[in-house]
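User: quick one - fold this with TZP bound?
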Amino acid sequence: MKASRPFPYHLYLVISEADCRGRDPLWVAEEAILGGVDIIQLREKHVATDVFLDKAAQLKQVTDRHRVPLIINDSLTVAMAVGAFGIHVGQQDTPPSEVRRVWPDCQLLGYSIEQQEQLQSRETAAADCLGVSPIFSTATKTDTVTEWGIAGIRQLRGLTDKPLIAIGRMNAGNAREAIRAGADCIAVVSAICAADSPRKAANELKNVINNAL
Ligand code: TZP
Ligand code: MG
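Assistant: Sure. Structure tokens for the protein plus TZP:
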């Protein structure tokens, strides 16, 4: 197993209003932070840029208050306009090399890896951390390629020292094995956003992760 570069974030909340069961995402985010979430990504699909911008600016107030880094999914415009900590892009989005060129101040650039060949690309080299997407197929994101599974994390861990973020149907029941296989961080949508108590759900996940690290 390759040693991963130190990565200070272990529980990563990916949030969108649509996944919060009609509850205020700002409330969900704050509860999740109080439960132990280390970093938050705002992922809003199918909304106009000005709406995305407005949601991001509101969430930034919450994350700033708690000194939690805010990452924006896909949109460089929104990420730069709100002064986010970083951005997360997928294979179909603005390539990491372009993000670096346009936004040199980006402090954390995440990039999703869907197939092993993508690990060797110059775009992967330009990223700070990698989303291993998806570990397990999930109803939250249906346009995925194949499942990595826990074995996929182990395989990637042997090939890169970049921090690995496990995403896709992760929860308190499977977080331990993902960390033991070499993931640095567990990212979730439903396990926190859809929980009756986002705070308790985050806290349970955080305990599982801390015990596995
Ligand atoms: N990327 C890969 S899977 C996924 C994303 C954004 C969704 C994860 O959602 P959930 O509800 O935690 O399975
Ligand atoms: Mg994307």
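One thing worth noting: Residues 11-212 form a domain with the TIM Barrel fold (CATH 3.20.20.70).
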